[in-house]
Amino acid sequence: MTTYAALLRGINVGGSRKLPMADLRTLLAGLGHTGVRTYLQSGQAVFTAGHGDEESLAAELTRAIEERFGFTADVLVRDHAYLRAVAEACPFPAAGLEARQLHVTYFSAPVGPERFAEIDQAAFLPEEFRLGDRALYLYAPDGLGRSRLAEALSRPRVTKGLIATTRNWNTVVKLVELTGP
Question: Where are the membrane-spanning stretches (predicted)?
Answer without folding.
Answer: none
